[in-house]
Amino acid sequence: MATACIVGWSHGKFGKLDGETSESLIVKAASEAIAHAGIEPKDIDVIYVGNMNGGFVRQEFHSSLALQTHPDLRFKPSTRVENACATGSAAIHMGLNTLAAGKARFVLVVGVEKMTELNSAQAGEVLIKASYVAEEANIEAGFAGIFGKITSAYFQRYGDKSDALAKIAVKAHKNGAKNPYAHFQKEFTYEFCRNPSDKNPFVAGPLKRTDCSPVTDGAAAVVLADVGTALGLRHAIAFRAAEHVNDFLPMSKRDIVKFEGPQLAWQRALASAKLDLLDLSFVETHDCFTSAELIEYEAMGLTAPGEGERAIHEGWVERDGKLPINVSGGLKAKGHPVGATGVSMHVMAAMQLSGAAPAALQLPKADKAGVFNMGGAAVANYVSILEPLR
Predict the structure, then answer these.
(1) Inter-residue contact 6 to 99 (CB < 8 Å)
(2) Which residues contact 101 (CB under 8 A, 6 or more apart)?
(3) Which of 28, 64, 121, 160 is most solvent-facing, going by the fewest CB within 10 Å?
(4) Which range marks the domain in which residue 78 is found?
(5) Of 118, 24, 101, 14, which is closest to residue 66 (Cα–Cα)?
(6) Cα gap 202→137, rounded to integer Å
(7) What is the pLDDT of residue 1?
């Protein structure tokens, strides 16, 4: 049963956005989402701004920047939300909870991150804060090193899966080339992704540059409404399920190749929606690294543990496969502006479900979507099941 709906959305171009600020990105995303919903700024009751920051920009206090969108937003309650790389979905869930509590009819959610003002080393120092700093802050190569460690452990248990990781990267860039919002809109060959080179060096453990999502600027926004209100609006993409599961932060307290938190979030969401995984038309999943996507195939129940490579080798997750995954290009090609990512994933899903995705990106049949957004190394886990309300 639908719990709430996305009734308006917007998505800006992701990339290195020189000349833009967090404020300018928020204002543009918010104004376009409100207009797309067919409502006025004064109709917004509550605002949530998803922004990890952690030192990416000097301006830490972002909540009232959304009020710059229009004078009628002055005095609206607005809160900044942060939950590492799942910040965007966390902000959406705060909006869903507000609607469920009857505290609002319309909630504006904006996700934003301006990451490229820092160099790669500085950005790495910010991102490592999404790990358990007491034990993991000194892992070589920062947050890429966290997933380098996870990938190495997976390979030790199940064998070298570098061929599968290269194919996942190729798929991401093939899909991203069709997405005008994507950071990278260029296809990569399997040979380039599979083999280390000056342009594709090893970054951490078995992970090469083509296995890693980029440092990106960007923003996206949604307007949420209760189901009764949504029935009278032009756009209405319903949440059939929305689940949130947090696991222990230290990797030392978990089997790091199992992704037990993501698995439980998926199980709860599918049970709540009364669906099987293959009832979904497509999934947008959190491919911060290609190995994350590989393990997520297993966590969502597409394959058994250790057999995730089947999904990519046998074409199940391609655009024309039995469960297309990351047709947007995913974080790997679309980009990963941390606070915006979860909102972006929901916008990409809403576009597909309403038949409004860019022409080259639009799937021929899309009536149910899964979204999985992850904060840290399988720590904060959000799954949404979306479908058109009517």
Answers:
(1) no
(2) none
(3) 121
(4) 5-118+215-230
(5) 24
(6) 20
(7) 63
